[in-house]
Amino acid sequence: MGRANDIELIRTTGLPDPERxxxxxxxxxxxxxxxxxxxxxxxxxxxxxxxxxxxxxxVRASLHRIRAxxxxxxxxxxxxxxxxxxxxxxxxxxxxxxxxxxxxxTAWFVRHGTAARPPTAYIESGGLRTTGxxxxxxxxxxxxxxxxSLPVVDQLLADRRTTPEALAADLELRGSGQAKAxxxxxxxxxxxxSPAESVCRVRxxxxxxxxxxxxxxxxxxxxxxAVVDFWFPDQGVVVEVDGRAKYEDPTMLEGRSTAEAHxxxxxxxxxxxxxxxxxxxxxxxxxxxxxxxxxxAALRRAGVPCR
Length: 307
What we know:
There is one protein chain. The chain has 14 helices and 13 strands. Helix 3 crosses helix 4 (74-81), helix 5 crosses helix 8 (178-187) and helix 9 crosses helix 14. It is globular and about 75 Å long. 43% of the residues lie in helices and 18% in strands. The strands form four sheets. The chain has a four-stranded mixed sheet. By secondary structure, the chain is an alpha+beta fold.
């Protein structure tokens, strides 16, 4: 969220004609890039941003076209609020429009008509107003696949931004998409430690695996403990979700080198394998999670039943 706010936006609307023409010449020369009509950035400014951050910049670039009664909503609200966007970010900005009951798609926006159920709360962030935490999650859950919505619900619960009761209350008021949203809200868990773990839970559901225990602790008297992502006790199988961030993100390395992080993770896995009830440890990467058949095959090899 912070990195998106740091991107300089150069607006040409309202500038004197000579200045505007000079900036347009800079675009043609590659000195500047256009991300919206009348909104420019430095070349490569968005390259190091992940999709959610890039969409957040797009929302900022569209601010002058957002009406006073609008609230940024759906996936766009998630981008502004720093919630996970799994998959491709939308190319248009989503807003809640309480002046109509109809949803319209324009060149810049998807305008969701919410006159029948106007948002009752909003959040101000970096000069933008978004729908509230619970409303944003329910809107995404009602309109996007479970693979995209569950990470949002899980993170909000884990961060204590909302509660299961608040989500259920907002869901109760929803008309279209209520059943679809109810699946994500019902699966929501504060125990998911990352979007990858949320996606993994969706894959378990899709392949028909039993419900695992989340964040199961293995502890030995006299010292030593490890918490695993998922534990299938009937099959004696541990599932760990690996992400590149675990070994490359400085905020997660906590002063360790990548090699040290790998070594400590190996020692941790050896500790888990030392328990007699653990028959198998499955490690799933983000690439694995993007292909349900890989998840199914890995679980079956370990003895976890799947359909």
